[in-house]
Write a structure and sequence with these properties.
mainly alpha; 60% helix; globular
Protein backbone atom coordinates (compact mmCIF):
# COMPACT_ATOMS: atom_id res chain seq x y z
CA UNK A 1 0.00 0.00 0.00
CA UNK A 2 1.33 3.46 -0.89
CA UNK A 3 2.13 5.88 1.93
CA UNK A 4 -0.50 8.63 1.96
CA UNK A 5 1.78 10.96 3.92
CA UNK A 6 4.43 10.76 1.22
CA UNK A 7 1.83 11.52 -1.45
CA UNK A 8 0.69 14.57 0.54
CA UNK A 9 4.29 15.75 0.93
CA UNK A 10 4.82 15.39 -2.82
CA UNK A 11 1.63 17.37 -3.45
CA UNK A 12 2.92 20.18 -1.21
CA UNK A 13 6.10 20.31 -3.25
CA UNK A 14 4.10 20.69 -6.46
CA UNK A 15 1.47 23.17 -5.32
CA UNK A 16 2.76 25.34 -2.47
CA UNK A 17 4.58 28.63 -2.75
CA UNK A 18 8.39 28.49 -2.81
CA UNK A 19 8.21 30.45 0.44
CA UNK A 20 5.96 27.90 2.19
CA UNK A 21 7.20 25.57 4.92
CA UNK A 22 7.11 22.04 3.49
CA UNK A 23 6.22 19.19 5.82
CA UNK A 24 9.01 17.10 4.35
CA UNK A 25 11.54 19.84 5.19
CA UNK A 26 10.60 20.24 8.85
CA UNK A 27 13.55 20.56 11.22
CA UNK A 28 11.83 17.96 13.39
CA UNK A 29 11.02 17.35 17.03
CA UNK A 30 13.16 17.33 20.16
CA UNK A 31 12.43 13.62 20.57
CA UNK A 32 12.63 11.57 17.41
CA UNK A 33 9.60 9.41 16.61
CA UNK A 34 8.39 7.34 13.64
CA UNK A 35 6.51 9.16 10.88
CA UNK A 36 2.79 8.60 10.49
CA UNK A 37 1.66 6.74 7.38
CA UNK A 38 -1.30 9.09 6.75
CA UNK A 39 -0.68 12.47 8.35
CA UNK A 40 2.16 14.91 7.76
CA UNK A 41 4.14 16.11 10.77
CA UNK A 42 2.16 19.36 10.94
CA UNK A 43 -1.16 17.55 10.75
CA UNK A 44 -0.08 15.47 13.73
CA UNK A 45 0.88 18.60 15.65
CA UNK A 46 -2.51 20.17 14.92
CA UNK A 47 -4.29 17.05 16.15
CA UNK A 48 -2.19 16.84 19.32
CA UNK A 49 -3.04 20.43 20.19
CA UNK A 50 -6.72 19.96 19.40
CA UNK A 51 -6.96 16.95 21.73
CA UNK A 52 -4.90 18.29 24.65
CA UNK A 53 -6.40 19.39 27.96
CA UNK A 54 -5.06 22.94 27.78
CA UNK A 55 -6.99 23.50 24.54
CA UNK A 56 -10.26 22.36 26.09
CA UNK A 57 -9.79 24.69 29.05
CA UNK A 58 -9.72 27.72 26.75
CA UNK A 59 -13.52 27.61 26.52
CA UNK A 60 -13.75 28.79 30.14
CA UNK A 61 -11.06 31.49 30.03
CA UNK A 62 -11.70 35.21 29.65
CA UNK A 63 -10.95 36.93 26.36
CA UNK A 64 -11.64 40.54 27.42
CA UNK A 65 -14.79 40.70 29.56
CA UNK A 66 -14.54 39.18 33.02
CA UNK A 67 -17.44 36.85 33.82
CA UNK A 68 -19.73 38.22 31.08
CA UNK A 69 -23.43 37.42 31.43
CA UNK A 70 -24.32 36.38 27.91
CA UNK A 71 -23.86 33.47 25.53
CA UNK A 72 -22.36 35.39 22.64
CA UNK A 73 -19.27 37.00 24.12
CA UNK A 74 -15.95 35.62 22.99
CA UNK A 75 -13.89 33.34 25.18
CA UNK A 76 -10.24 32.47 24.70
CA UNK A 77 -11.38 29.41 22.73
CA UNK A 78 -13.62 31.25 20.28
CA UNK A 79 -10.84 33.81 19.83
CA UNK A 80 -8.48 30.96 18.95
CA UNK A 81 -10.91 29.58 16.39
CA UNK A 82 -11.35 32.99 14.75
CA UNK A 83 -7.57 33.43 14.57
CA UNK A 84 -7.30 30.00 12.97
CA UNK A 85 -9.92 30.83 10.35
CA UNK A 86 -8.26 34.12 9.34
CA UNK A 87 -4.76 32.61 9.33
CA UNK A 88 -5.91 29.70 7.15
CA UNK A 89 -7.48 32.18 4.74
CA UNK A 90 -4.05 33.81 4.40
CA UNK A 91 -2.38 30.43 3.97
CA UNK A 92 -4.76 29.21 1.28
CA UNK A 93 -4.65 32.45 -0.71
CA UNK A 94 -0.83 32.67 -0.53
CA UNK A 95 -0.31 28.91 -1.08
CA UNK A 96 1.31 28.39 2.31
CA UNK A 97 1.13 25.28 4.48
CA UNK A 98 -2.39 25.30 5.94
CA UNK A 99 -1.67 22.48 8.40
CA UNK A 100 1.30 24.29 9.93
CA UNK A 101 -0.69 27.52 10.03
CA UNK A 102 -3.62 25.84 11.77
CA UNK A 103 -1.39 24.10 14.31
CA UNK A 104 0.26 27.39 15.30
CA UNK A 105 -3.09 29.19 15.49
CA UNK A 106 -4.75 26.53 17.64
CA UNK A 107 -1.78 26.47 20.03
CA UNK A 108 -0.91 30.15 20.24
CA UNK A 109 -2.84 30.90 23.46
CA UNK A 110 -2.61 27.57 25.32
CA UNK A 111 -0.63 29.22 28.10
CA UNK A 112 -3.05 32.06 28.73
CA UNK A 113 -4.07 32.66 32.32
CA UNK A 114 -7.58 32.83 33.75
CA UNK A 115 -9.11 36.30 33.37
CA UNK A 116 -7.09 37.12 30.26
CA UNK A 117 -4.29 39.67 30.33
CA UNK A 118 -5.30 40.75 33.83
CA UNK A 119 -4.17 37.39 35.16
CA UNK A 120 -1.03 37.52 33.05
CA UNK A 121 0.00 40.88 34.53
CA UNK A 122 -0.50 39.63 38.09
CA UNK A 123 1.68 36.55 37.59
CA UNK A 124 4.30 38.62 35.80
CA UNK A 125 4.55 40.88 38.86
CA UNK A 126 4.61 38.03 41.38
CA UNK A 127 7.05 35.67 39.69
CA UNK A 128 10.76 36.52 40.13
CA UNK A 129 11.54 35.51 36.55
CA UNK A 130 8.40 37.15 35.16
CA UNK A 131 5.54 35.56 33.28
CA UNK A 132 4.44 35.75 29.65
CA UNK A 133 1.51 33.84 28.15
CA UNK A 134 3.56 33.45 24.96
CA UNK A 135 6.40 31.63 26.70
CA UNK A 136 3.88 29.76 28.84
CA UNK A 137 2.14 28.45 25.71
CA UNK A 138 5.43 26.93 24.60
CA UNK A 139 5.98 25.55 28.10
CA UNK A 140 2.56 23.88 27.95
CA UNK A 141 3.38 21.99 24.76
CA UNK A 142 6.99 21.21 25.72
CA UNK A 143 6.46 20.14 29.33
CA UNK A 144 3.13 20.53 31.08
CA UNK A 145 0.88 18.42 28.88
CA UNK A 146 0.83 14.62 29.24
CA UNK A 147 2.14 14.58 32.79
CA UNK A 148 5.38 16.37 32.11
CA UNK A 149 6.19 14.80 28.74
CA UNK A 150 4.72 17.57 26.61
CA UNK A 151 3.33 17.13 23.11
CA UNK A 152 6.71 16.87 21.34
CA UNK A 153 5.70 19.30 18.59
CA UNK A 154 7.86 20.29 15.64
CA UNK A 155 10.16 23.26 16.00
CA UNK A 156 8.25 25.24 13.37
CA UNK A 157 5.00 25.06 15.35
CA UNK A 158 6.72 26.07 18.58
CA UNK A 159 8.48 28.95 16.82
CA UNK A 160 5.14 30.24 15.53
CA UNK A 161 3.55 30.00 18.98
CA UNK A 162 6.49 31.77 20.63
CA UNK A 163 6.49 34.63 18.11
CA UNK A 164 2.78 35.26 17.58
CA UNK A 165 2.51 38.59 19.39
CA UNK A 166 3.15 41.99 17.80
CA UNK A 167 6.83 42.11 18.78
CA UNK A 168 7.48 38.56 17.56
CA UNK A 169 9.46 37.54 14.48
CA UNK A 170 8.29 34.12 13.27
CA UNK A 171 10.72 32.25 11.02
CA UNK A 172 7.98 30.92 8.73
CA UNK A 173 5.33 32.71 6.71
CA UNK A 174 2.81 30.43 8.37
CA UNK A 175 3.85 31.87 11.73
CA UNK A 176 3.58 35.36 10.27
CA UNK A 177 0.05 34.53 9.11
CA UNK A 178 -0.97 33.73 12.68
CA UNK A 179 0.75 36.85 13.99
CA UNK A 180 -1.30 39.05 11.65
CA UNK A 181 -4.48 37.02 12.15
CA UNK A 182 -4.28 37.27 15.95
CA UNK A 183 -4.23 41.05 15.89
CA UNK A 184 -6.89 41.36 13.19
CA UNK A 185 -9.15 38.93 15.04
CA UNK A 186 -8.96 40.39 18.54
CA UNK A 187 -9.29 44.03 17.54
CA UNK A 188 -12.44 43.34 15.55
CA UNK A 189 -14.17 40.78 17.74
CA UNK A 190 -13.43 42.88 20.82
CA UNK A 191 -15.13 45.83 19.13
CA UNK A 192 -18.08 43.56 18.35
CA UNK A 193 -18.30 42.38 21.97
CA UNK A 194 -17.93 45.92 23.30
CA UNK A 195 -20.79 47.13 21.12
CA UNK A 196 -22.91 44.14 22.23
CA UNK A 197 -22.17 45.04 25.86
CA UNK A 198 -23.25 48.64 25.33
CA UNK A 199 -19.82 49.98 26.26
CA UNK A 200 -19.23 51.67 22.93
CA UNK A 201 -21.12 52.28 19.71
CA UNK A 202 -19.97 52.11 16.12
CA UNK A 203 -20.31 55.90 15.95
CA UNK A 204 -17.78 56.33 18.78
CA UNK A 205 -14.94 54.79 16.75
CA UNK A 206 -12.59 57.37 15.21
CA UNK A 207 -14.07 58.38 11.86
CA UNK A 208 -10.69 58.96 10.21
CA UNK A 209 -9.95 55.28 10.87
CA UNK A 210 -13.34 53.83 9.97
CA UNK A 211 -13.34 55.83 6.73
CA UNK A 212 -10.25 53.78 5.79
CA UNK A 213 -11.05 50.37 7.28
CA UNK A 214 -14.83 50.30 7.09
CA UNK A 215 -17.90 51.17 9.14
CA UNK A 216 -18.72 47.70 10.47
CA UNK A 217 -16.83 44.71 11.83
CA UNK A 218 -17.52 42.84 8.60
CA UNK A 219 -16.17 45.65 6.42
CA UNK A 220 -13.05 46.06 8.55
CA UNK A 221 -12.25 42.35 8.50
CA UNK A 222 -12.71 42.32 4.74
CA UNK A 223 -10.41 45.32 4.30
CA UNK A 224 -7.64 44.02 6.56
CA UNK A 225 -7.63 40.45 5.24
CA UNK A 226 -7.65 41.55 1.61
CA UNK A 227 -4.85 44.03 2.24
CA UNK A 228 -2.54 41.41 3.76
CA UNK A 229 -3.15 38.99 0.90
CA UNK A 230 -2.80 41.63 -1.82
CA UNK A 231 0.51 42.97 -0.49
CA UNK A 232 2.04 39.59 0.45
CA UNK A 233 1.65 37.69 -2.80
CA UNK A 234 4.91 36.19 -4.08
CA UNK A 235 6.91 37.81 -1.30
CA UNK A 236 9.19 36.20 1.32
CA UNK A 237 7.28 37.85 4.16
CA UNK A 238 3.74 38.94 4.99
CA UNK A 239 3.01 42.64 5.05
CA UNK A 240 0.29 45.27 4.88
CA UNK A 241 0.11 48.57 3.04
CA UNK A 242 1.39 51.44 5.21
CA UNK A 243 -1.99 53.21 5.15
CA UNK A 244 -4.00 50.19 6.28
CA UNK A 245 -1.45 49.12 8.87
CA UNK A 246 -1.37 52.62 10.38
CA UNK A 247 -5.17 52.65 10.56
CA UNK A 248 -5.22 49.24 12.25
CA UNK A 249 -2.63 50.38 14.80
CA UNK A 250 -4.67 53.51 15.44
CA UNK A 251 -7.79 51.43 16.07
CA UNK A 252 -5.82 49.14 18.38
CA UNK A 253 -4.56 52.12 20.38
CA UNK A 254 -8.11 53.48 20.63
CA UNK A 255 -9.29 50.13 22.00
CA UNK A 256 -6.56 50.12 24.63
CA UNK A 257 -7.52 53.62 25.76
CA UNK A 258 -11.28 53.07 25.77
CA UNK A 259 -11.86 49.35 26.43
CA UNK A 260 -8.79 47.30 27.38
CA UNK A 261 -7.43 49.69 30.01
CA UNK A 262 -9.85 52.55 30.53
CA UNK A 263 -13.15 50.82 29.89
CA UNK A 264 -16.08 50.27 32.22
CA UNK A 265 -15.74 46.47 31.96
CA UNK A 266 -12.26 46.54 33.52
CA UNK A 267 -13.40 47.76 36.94
CA UNK A 268 -13.59 44.18 38.22
CA UNK A 269 -9.86 43.73 37.59
CA UNK A 270 -8.88 44.88 41.07
CA UNK A 271 -10.82 41.93 42.50
CA UNK A 272 -9.17 39.54 40.06
CA UNK A 273 -5.75 40.89 40.94
CA UNK A 274 -6.29 40.42 44.66
CA UNK A 275 -7.75 36.94 44.20
CA UNK A 276 -4.77 35.75 42.15
CA UNK A 277 -2.29 37.31 44.57
CA UNK A 278 -3.86 35.45 47.50
CA UNK A 279 -3.93 32.16 45.59
CA UNK A 280 -0.29 32.59 44.53
CA UNK A 281 0.89 33.14 48.11
CA UNK A 282 -1.33 30.31 49.38
CA UNK A 283 0.20 27.79 46.98
CA UNK A 284 3.69 29.06 47.73
CA UNK A 285 3.06 28.14 51.37
CA UNK A 286 1.08 24.99 50.58
CA UNK A 287 2.41 23.49 47.30
CA UNK A 288 0.95 20.13 48.32
CA UNK A 289 -2.51 21.60 47.65
CA UNK A 290 -1.84 21.70 43.92
CA UNK A 291 -2.88 18.71 41.83
CA UNK A 292 -0.53 15.74 41.71
CA UNK A 293 0.80 16.40 38.21
CA UNK A 294 2.04 19.86 39.21
CA UNK A 295 3.47 18.56 42.46
CA UNK A 296 5.40 15.94 40.45
CA UNK A 297 6.80 18.61 38.11
CA UNK A 298 7.83 20.71 41.13
CA UNK A 299 9.56 17.74 42.75
CA UNK A 300 11.37 17.05 39.49
CA UNK A 301 12.58 20.65 39.31
CA UNK A 302 13.74 20.56 42.93
CA UNK A 303 15.59 17.29 42.43
CA UNK A 304 17.77 18.93 39.77
CA UNK A 305 19.03 21.60 42.18
CA UNK A 306 22.38 20.52 43.59
CA UNK A 307 22.71 20.57 47.37
CA UNK A 308 25.84 22.71 47.06
CA UNK A 309 24.54 24.96 44.28
CA UNK A 310 25.27 28.69 44.64
CA UNK A 311 22.14 30.59 45.69
CA UNK A 312 20.40 27.31 46.45
CA UNK A 313 17.60 28.96 48.42
CA UNK A 314 16.89 31.35 45.55
CA UNK A 315 16.78 28.50 43.04
CA UNK A 316 14.36 26.59 45.26
CA UNK A 317 12.07 29.61 45.50
CA UNK A 318 12.17 30.13 41.73
CA UNK A 319 11.27 26.46 41.21
CA UNK A 320 8.29 26.87 43.56
CA UNK A 321 7.19 30.07 41.84
CA UNK A 322 7.43 28.44 38.44
CA UNK A 323 5.23 25.52 39.47
CA UNK A 324 2.68 27.77 41.16
CA UNK A 325 2.52 29.94 38.03
CA UNK A 326 2.08 26.79 35.93
CA UNK A 327 -0.80 25.68 38.11
CA UNK A 328 -2.60 29.02 38.30
CA UNK A 329 -2.08 29.79 34.60
CA UNK A 330 -3.72 26.49 33.72
CA UNK A 331 -6.86 27.28 35.70
CA UNK A 332 -10.11 28.30 34.07
CA UNK A 333 -11.92 31.36 35.42
CA UNK A 334 -14.48 29.19 37.22
CA UNK A 335 -11.90 26.84 38.74
CA UNK A 336 -9.86 29.80 39.98
CA UNK A 337 -12.92 31.32 41.68
CA UNK A 338 -13.85 27.93 43.16
CA UNK A 339 -10.39 27.49 44.68
CA UNK A 340 -10.47 31.01 46.07
CA UNK A 341 -13.80 30.31 47.73
CA UNK A 342 -12.49 27.02 49.10
CA UNK A 343 -9.48 28.62 50.78
CA UNK A 344 -10.67 32.11 51.70
CA UNK A 345 -14.48 32.21 51.95
CA UNK A 346 -16.03 30.66 55.08
CA UNK A 347 -18.66 27.99 54.58
CA UNK A 348 -21.91 28.50 56.48
CA UNK A 349 -22.21 26.23 59.55
CA UNK A 350 -24.79 23.50 59.43
CA UNK A 351 -26.02 21.19 62.15
CA UNK A 352 -26.39 17.62 60.94
Amino acid sequence: MSCIREELEALELQTLSPYAALSSASTGRDRSEPQDDIRTCYERDRDRILHCKAFRRLKHKTQVFIAPEGDHYRTRLTHTLEVSQIARTFAKALRLNEDLTEAIALGHDLGHTPFGHSGERVLDQLCTEGFSHVEQSVRVVELLEKGGRGLNLTKEVRDGILNHRTSGHPHTLEGQSVRFADKIAYINHDIDDSIRAGLITEAMLPQDITDILGHSVRERLNTLIHDVILHSQNKPQLCMSPKIEAAMQGLRQWMFANVYIGGEAKKEEIKVNRMLELLFHFYMKHPNMMTQEYIAILEGNLSRISSDAPEKDRLIRIAHERSVCDYIAGMTDDYCIAKFKEYFIPIGWKKY
